[in-house]
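Incident log, structure service

09:12 report received: a user says their structure output differs between two submissions of the same chain.
09:20 pulled the input from the user's history:
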Amino acid sequence: MNYDKNRFINNIYALAKRQKLKIGELESACGVSVGYFARLRQGGESAGPGAELLAAFADHLSVSLDALLSFDFTQLTESEQNLMNYMVKLRYDTETRCLSWQRDRAGSGAPIPLNPDGTSAHPLFINKEGLLSAEEMAEDELPESVMLSESVYRSVFRPDQDGLVPLKIYRCAFPGKRMLYLVEVAKPGQAVPGPADWTELELVMSVPELPEPLTFAHTDHENPGMLDKALVSLFLSVKNAVDSPALSPVASAIINDYLR
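09:34 re-ran on a clean worker, output below:
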């Protein structure tokens, strides 16, 4: 995390104003004298805030320290800030094991669960019919063309783009049978992403009483936004928690006890 004094101070004022908090109240709550930020802006403070003081400011403003130092809150709308705070908290709760994420095998070529009528039972997939020609069929099958139905990923952010491939899907259960999904998608035929390949992230939630998943955030290479970094950071934390899970505190204690 790089400390940029001007960005840091601007973020402090923007967050305090949005939360209807007076700067003097923030300064007093965090243990510095009133006028601290004014002096810091004008160069009256000999040194910038230390790590503990930075953490205190971030905690009192309900944002992560990384977000406070990395993002430009002056450019965020209130809705964007709420969404960013949501992703920051998701990341924090993931890293502190308050949230339990799982790998959804639907994004790894596993069969998609179906309803009794044959339609997709997965909220992120829909049934799509396509014509299978005789040339594409084995010789021992019917010679005429037939209609083939398959479950395909449906991007609620890119409904006009067919054939998007979900490389990885992570899911986390919430009360009320709601399910939060974090998906890495790629262009058709792109099995393994490379540094120059097109991949995006999508954060959505399925709610039983709603016909379509709720949209939260997504990255966009063509039009990068202020929230991209927060979503990428969340994805990396979730991926690390699921693909490289840490030992539980009990298991760690048993191992440490044995190694003594």
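09:41 both user submissions now match this output. Likely a transient worker issue. Closing.
09:42 reviewer note: The radius of gyration is 24 Å. Residues 101-111+160-243 form one domain.
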